[in-house]
Amino acid sequence: MMHGDPTHATSVVFGWSPLWVATSLFVATYLVIMSDRLNRAIVALLGAGLLILVGVLNQHEAMAAVDFNTLGLLLGMMLIVNITRRSGLFQYVAIWSAKKVDARPWGILLMMSIVTAVFSAFLDNVTTVLLTVPVTLLITDELKVKPYPYLFAQIFASNIGGTATLIGDPPNIMIGSAASLTFNDFAVGLTPIIVVIMVATMVPLYFVWGRHLHATDENRRHVMGFNERETITDPRLLKQSLTVIALVIVGFMLQRQIKIEPATIAIFGAALLLLLDNLGKDGETQSRNVHGALSEAEWITLMFFLGLFVLVYGIQKAGLIDMMADALLKATGGDFNITALAILWASAVLSAFIDNIPFVATMIPLIKAMGPTFGGDAALLPLWWALSLGACLGGNGTLIGASANLVVAGLAERAGTSFRFMEYLKVAFPLMLISIVLSHVYLYYRYL
Amino acid sequence: MSSPVIFNTAFPLLKDTETVADAIQRMLDDRVSDLPVVDASGKFIGMFRLDRLYATLLPKAALIGYGVGDLAFVSDTLGQLREKMREIEHLAVRDFVVKARGVVHPDTPPLEIVLLLHHGINAIPVVERDGGRLVGMVSARDLLNALHAEGNG
After folding, report:
1. Mean pLDDT in each 10-residue stretch from start to end of chain A (448 residues)?
2. CA-to-CA distance for A381 and A446, rounded, in angstroms?
3. Which residue does chain A place closest to B71, by CA atoms?
4. Structural domain boundaries, residue B116
């Protein structure tokens, strides 16, 4: 760690100060990403490229800055989900759960939220809502009830559920990789409070919308008439997918014992599932299958991460991160508890308005830089949980707080239900604050 | 001027003020699934397509980009679908008009027509360059007839 000394940077064009060049580029990139005028992958890659062109970093340093463990884990899970999706598993679970509550409107809202939260804990949040929202729209259509409360609840469930595990939300993947926290660490550290927050979120939703939801017996019979078995389009693929997912999760759980990092486990799982899916098929079919699975990975997200890692390393090398860490410590008086809670609240409020991925990418080296002050890396655990809870749950606060929110709003608009920024904010922001208050209490009593 | 031998000038069409029920009747009578729609002045305004009509029977969740991929698990009966159809039969054709996927003019060379038909567009409106008046339709059968016929067109 180069403690606040910009002279460590390599020579920058025109003799400019590396600190100012890197900071300006970083801030400019952030602003363009926030403006939403240009695709974020383009912006991050351009910013990273410019850092190298002007001489803040060389290519070797830029490559070394990329956390391939995060990228590999994301890519591996994307591939596994894309292949599994074809089996019809996710629709099956959604419809099965709706019928378990006799197609009662509030029961379905609860069940769809739980299903969304559980899926989100193991899959990317955007993928989860893309899989579950169409089923919700279909069910609300048949029940002739307003889809808005259901979709609202699903947004919350996906962001809350995603916070529960290492693989549920990209910020957690980054934090886990940077701080060497395992799947089990997340399960022990975050899952308990996430269960509490999930319950605490559903109670107000019942009073706001749940108790007013009504459907006729006739319309409920339509939903009860759904035959979920018909959704399983490929039983062989279903068995293969479930086996591989189970193996991958067991792999994550045994990460410490088998000493294999998550990216390897996820990519190996994806390769295994591709193998099972293609075994015995001719060359042309294999090419088509593999091409389909690979091209459906979210390359925009992956390339965005790639550029971001380089950008953040740029400001780190130039000394900005250390300066920010010093400033934060000064503001909190070097008090560990105040620092942890400040990270929680600031992350939550900021993540409600800005993309939590670049935010977390910036906060990670900042928190690491505080390690020496607080007695080593091991002491930082509560700060990592504060960052994760703040950044992931904060995303619920506004419609632009997380990508899943925008995806749900987009699907809803296309199906004729409008999601307005202020209308969402009025219920969502207070509800998000409740989850942060609960996180505050949890962190305080368990870790501080 | 090679197209006149290909296109059909006696063809079924719809006025934009006619109802969906009228359109269905015409489709059944004339055994077609796509009908051109004109306004009061005879100007072509778009197509009334059977696949667009069928979309109204589907739940919205199946129509959004990344929607429900199959509906085999939904047990709506033919009777329920008929009810949905009854609900829209009185609506004007105008509400269902879609942009034609391909439009040709009387002087369009035949190879362009072959290309459009090859792309699976089976009812191509022939529209005057000036004024946009509908003057004919070309179907795959019309082309086949023209190719089969002897002559020096």
Report:
1. 44 83 90 83 94 93 92 91 87 92 96 95 87 92 94 97 93 93 94 96 96 94 91 91 94 90 94 95 94 89 90 90 88 92 94 86 92 89 97 93 88 87 93 97 94
2. 11
3. A231
4. 14-148
Cα(A91)–Cα(A134) distance, integer angstroms = 9
Q: Is residue B25 part of a domain?
A: yes
Q: Which long-range contacts (CB under 8 A, 24 or more apart) does A211-219 make?
A: A211/A106, A213/A105, A213/A106, A213/A109, A213/A145, A213/A149, A214/A105, A214/A145, A215/A103, A215/A104, A215/A105, A215/A143, A215/A144, A215/A145, A216/A144, A219/A142, A219/A143, A219/A144
What is the C-alpha separation between A231 and A134, in angstroms, rounded? 13
Per-residue b or e along A156-167, where b marks 16 or more CB atoms closer than 10 Å to that residue's CB: bbbbbbbbbbbb
Cross-chain Cβ contact B64/A137 below 8 Å = yes
| Tokens coding A195 | 């269960």
**What's the token pair of residue A390?**
């703040």
Strand partners, B49: B34
Mean pLDDT in residue range B56-83: 84
* Structure confidence at residue B2 as a pLDDT band (50, 70, 90): very low
Please report whether residue B1 resides in a domain: no
Q: Which tokens is A75 given?
A: 């890519």
Closest CB to A415: pick one of B64, B75, B76. B64
Tell me the sheet residues that pair with B38: B15, B44
Residues 404-433 of A with CB under 8 A from B: 411, 414-416
Q: What is the pLDDT of residues B33-62, one digit of tens each?
A: 999 999 999 999 999 999 999 999 998 888
CA distances (Å), A279 to each of A122, A155, A170, A274, in order? 26, 38, 32, 8
Q: Which residue has the higher pLDDT, B65 or A235?
A: A235
Domain count, chain B: 1
In this complex, do B74 and A141 lie within 8 Å of one another by their Cβ atoms? no
Q: Does pTM surpass 0.80?
A: yes
Amino acid at A173: I
pLDDT at A421: 86
Residue among A97, A154, A411, A419 with most chain B CBs within 10 A, to mutate? A411
| HSE-up (13 A, CA, CB side) for residue B142 | 23
* B9 within domain boundaries: no
- Show the beta-strand stretches assigned E in chain B: 14-15, 34-38, 44-49, 124-127, 134-138
Contact B75 A227 (CB under 8 A): yes
Q: Are B66 and B109 in contact (CB under 8 A)?
A: no
Place of tokens 């503001």: A331
Task: Give yes or no for a contact between A330 and A30, defined as CB atoms under 8 angstroms apart.
Answer: no
Give the count of Cβ contacts less than 8 A between chain A and B.
61
In one letter, which amino acid is A427?
V
On chain A, the residues whose CB falls within 8 A of the CB of B84 are: none
The answer to whether position B153 is within a domain reads no
What ipTM score was computed for the predicted complex, to two decimals? 0.72
DSSP 8-state secondary structure symbol assigned to residue A11? P
- Please report, for the domain that includes residue B30, its CATH number: 3.10.580.10
Tell me, yes or no, if B79 comes closer than 8 A to chain A by beta carbon.
no
